[in-house]
Predict the 3D structure of the following.
Amino acid sequence: MSVAGRGAVALRVRRRLGVLLPLAPFAAYAVLFLGLPTLAVALGAFQKHSGGWTLNNVRLASRGVYRKGFMTSLELATITAVVPAVLGVFLAYAVHTARPTSALKRVVSTASGVFANFGGVPLAFLFIASLGNTGLATKWLNSVGLNPYKHGFNLYAFSGIVLVYMYFQIPLMVLVITPALEGLRPAWREAAHNLGASSWSYWRHVGVPVLLPSFLGALLLLFGSGLSAYATAEALTNGSVAITSIQIGSFLNGNVISGQENVGKALGFGMIVVIFFVMLVYATLQRRASRWLQ
Amino acid sequence: MAAVASRDLGAPLLEAPAAPSAPGGRRGRTPRVWRFVVLLLAGLYFLVPLYAALRFALKTSQGRTSITAFTSIPHQQGFMPAFTLSLRLALVTTVITLLLMVPTAVYVHLRLPGLRRLFDGITILPIVIPPVVLIVGVLQVAPRRLKGTPYLLALEYAVLAMPFAYRSLDAGLRAIDLKTLFEASRSLGGGWFKTILRVVLPNLRAALLAATVLTVALVLGEYTMANLDQYATVPVWIVSFDQDNSHVSVAVSLLALVVTWVFLLAISSLGWRRSRRAVRAGLA
C-alpha cells in the first residue's frame, strides 16, 4: 500500500472514531456500571475468597439446594413468561382495537407503564391485602365456599409468587407487544378479505406469522424479567422461598459458611449464562421481526 | 433489535395517534364479545387487589374504619428519613439519566441511525440482567468511598432506568422531524449546544416528562439493590414497618402506585391534547 493510501485509511479511521466520540460518555457509563459489575461476578465465580482460581464455587452452586433453587427459578420464569405473554397479547389487542383517542387506551397504557416499572414491594402488599390469609378476596371466596388455601393455593409460596408476578409481567407484555400490533397494517387485512379469506385464515396466514417473531421476542424478555425478579418474592415470603435470586441475596446478607463466600457469585454467573443465551435468541428474533415492522 | 420493545416500552402514551388504526372491532359482533370478556377479566385482576388494599388500609388494627393509616404516614417512625432519602436518590438519578441519555439519543437519531438497533439491544439489558447479580458485582468493584454513600445506588438506578428512559426519548424523537429542526437551527447560526437546548428539548417536552416520571417511579419503587446495600429507602421501610403496622405499609404502597399513575395520566393527556391540536391544525 502506498504512503498516500495509508494516510487516507488513517484519516477515514480517525473520522469514523470522531463520529463515535460523542457516544463515549454513554459507553463509558454502561461499561463502568453495567459491564464491569457483571464481569466481576463472572470472574468471582471462579475465584477463592482468599484469591486464586477454583471450580469449587461452581461445583457447589450446581448441587443440592442451589440446583433445586435454579430449577424452581427456571420453572417460575417459564410459567410467568408464557401465561402473561398469552394473556398480555389478548389484552393488548383488545385495547389496540379501541378508538385511538379513547380513555381506555390511555388508562391501560399509562397503567402498564407504572405497573411494569414499579418495584415488586407495593405489589406484594396489594396482594397480601386481597389474597393473604385474611385478605378481602380470600374472604369473598371463602363466603362462597371456595377457600383458595384449601385448594393448594398459598400466597406466601410458589403459587402466590406466580400470581403476583403476573401483575407486572402482563403490563410489560402489553408495553412490548403493542408496537408490533400497530405494525399490522389494516391494508393486509382488507386485502385478505377481498381475496375471500375468513377472519380465521387471515390470522392463520398473515397475522400470526407476522407477529410470531415479536411475540417470541417479548416472551424471552418476560422470561428474563421473571428470572431476575427478587423484590416480590422477598417481600411475600421473607426470603424463605428457594429461588436463585433470593439465594444470591442471602449471600450478601451475610449468611455465609466459611469457604463458600463466592458461591453466590457462581449462582449469579449461572443466571448470566442463561440470560446470555436468551438475549442471543432474542437478537435473532428481533432481526426477523423488524423485517415486517419497519 | 428494532421491532419489539423498540418504541414505547416507557411511553406508549407519546406515540402520536396520527396513524388511522382501525384493525378490528368494526366487523360484526364477535370481536366485541371477546373484547368485553378480556377487558372484564383484566379489569378484575388488576382492580380487585387495588380495591382490597384500599379497604385494608382504611381499617385500623381494632377493625374500625378510619383514614388514620393515610394521615399518620408522615409521623411514622422512620418514614420521613426514608422518604427524603428516596427523593434525593430520585433527583440525582433523574439528573444523571437525562444528562446521559438525552444527548446520546439525539446524537444516535441524528448522525448514527444505523446504530439504533444496537442501542435498543444495549438499553434492554438492565431489564434482563438480574439487579441482585448487578449489586453483588457493584459492591465488589466499587471503591470504598463510593460504597459509603447512598449515591452509589443512584449511579446504579440510572442503569436500571435506561430501558424506560431511552424508549421514552426514542418515541419522542421519532415523532419529530429532528433533521429539519437541526438544519434550520444551524443555518440560523445556532451551535450544537444551543440547538439542543433551545430547539430540540422544547419539542421533546412530553418525552422528557415521561422519562422523568418513569425514572422517579423506578427509584421510589426499587427494593432489591437498596435492601442489599442496606439503605432504608421507602420500599425497604415499607417491608420493615409491616411488622409494626401493616395497614400503614399497605397505605404507603397504594399511595405510591396511584400517585405515579395519576402523574403519568396527566402527562399523557398533555401529550394527547397537543397531538390532537396538531392534527386539527394540519386539517385546517
Q: What stands out?
A: The first helix of chain A runs from residue 3 to 20. DSSP finds 13 helices and no strands in chain A. Chain A touches chain B through 108 residues (CB under 8 Å).
